[in-house]
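hey m, so remember when u said the tokens were messed up on ur end? i reran from scratch. heres the input so u can diff it against urs
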Amino acid sequence: MRGLLALRAIGAFTFGSLALHGPRIWKFAVFYAVFFLITGFFEDFLMRGYSQWVLARGINFWPAAVFLSATFGYIHGRNPGESSIGLAAAGCVGFFFCLTLRRTGDLWWAVGFHMTWDWGESFLYSVPDSGARLPWHLFNSSMNGPDWLTGGSVGPEGSYLVFVLIAGVWILFSWVYPEVRYTTEAQSH
């Protein structure tokens, strides 16, 4: 979450004081790690697992990825405090996760990144994640500045800067993982 550190550098984000102390820090750090691992499994297997495989067999990988990523963004609209920028960001992150599936051949990278992203926002940086600020976070942090910069009620995923971050991660990932390792039978003909 280098984006939050950049916001910290310009005074748009502050950590504040600790919200948890002693063993409760570790208790909720582990709790949220497991919670977001389950979230990553559920969302990534639903949107990029079997659904991606079935659709890719019929309409090819990238059209299926576009459809499922748009759906992934759309379903985040049920979150309280979400915005159109946050929904677009969720769709773009979903599309990036499709790239990770295509290049690694499995969902593990996407699940791990998804879990780490959500854990970092919700617990470590203690900011809203997809429009929700969860209880038992580490800091009493605050965001200061216009919504286009901070994301407002959505959190960093609602900031225009998230698209710069996603593009940077996409480029870096493509450089590190240049080979396609995921194919379907329909694509191999």
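this time it looks ok to me. Residues 23-131+145-176 form one domain. if urs says something different then somethings off w ur setup not the seq
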